[in-house]
Amino acid sequence: MSQVIFRKASYDYQTLKQTIFEILDSIEGFEINRQASVLIKPNLLMPAKPEHAILTHPLIVKAVTEYVFEKGGRPLISDSPAMGSLEKIKAQGGYNKALSSFDVEFKAFDTSINVDIGKPFGSIEMARDALEADVVINLPKLKTHSGMLLTLGVKNLFGCIVGLKKPQWHLRSGIDREMFARLLVQIYRAINPSITLVDGIWALEGQGPGKSGKPRRLGVLVGGKNAFDMDMAICTLLGMDPEQLPTHMAAKTLGLVSRSLAINGDVEVVNDFELPVLAPLTFGPKFIQKVMRKHLLQRPEADSLRCELCGECWQYCPAKAITLCKDRIDFDYDGCIRCYCCIEICPHGALCATETLPGKMLRKLSILK
Ligand code: SF4
Ligand code: SF4
Questions:
Q1: What does pLDDT average to over the chain?
Q2: Domains in the chain, number
Q3: Considering only CA atoms, which residue is closest to atom 4 of ligand 1?
């Protein structure tokens, strides 16, 4: 039976470390041999302070690093940030300070190797460090995601696609959320982390996963070996049906979700966690889909008062659907694939996914499910 561990926690380092060591020690079958190479994969999306609750908290990374050293392993901390340099993330995110007493390698993924992740994607390039490590410790942040509802254990490993290959995959899976969820599930399965530890002490609700989201204290750490099961258990914690989560549905279709879970610890259901509104990406008869997409679908929009015209969004957009137009940015909603990468990376929280008025009216009339 698959075990999912829930523990109450705060960012007080001494108690946090104790709790993390206890979780890691109690996961059946998890061990780090002496001299084992251990990849620690936090969520390092963009430069952000710990209080923004966008990145895995630096003290969690610190406690896990300390655990690996105590077991005699050789840790490497790595991710592939969507924007900003890793040096900036390390400084602003508090990692330099938290890890100052350790001699630990901390770098962005730089080289990829091809791996066959199965149909329909075939061979894709993923970070060599993640694929070749003896042990992978997956350290996601519990947060909302305007495109995929939540980003938890499974989605965190999308960061193992190196650099600009990430937006290319968004583009290749197009506007098909189910296909993108399946891609995430198959990437997770290929990396096959030994353990996942989710930072839900300060989570992010609303229009996550970037600066448009709102920090929310949940005070929980969730640990386990199987992130498919953990993500399902976290949905229950958040008072939602796991079937709302696209990655859960993709994993279920592939037979990767356990039939029964053993929950270790108390789960206090949070009934008022604010999820992003997800409108469907495709619907209606094919011949009018283009018009419907343009006028009815939720889409990214900029708050001109917050936008600093920094250019991060139009440089990153995989569909090249954002342009600078005098003193504001413009979206080409025909070309936009609704991947919401722009929202994710905007350093000023100036973008959010908004529903069109007709789309909102139709959803309220339950025409759009
Ligand atoms: S929306 Fe955000 S990322 Fe895009 S130009 Fe404005 S501030 Fe920069
Ligand atoms: S405009 Fe934003 S949501 Fe649309 S394709 Fe570009 S990055 Fe993705």
A1: 91
A2: 2
A3: 313
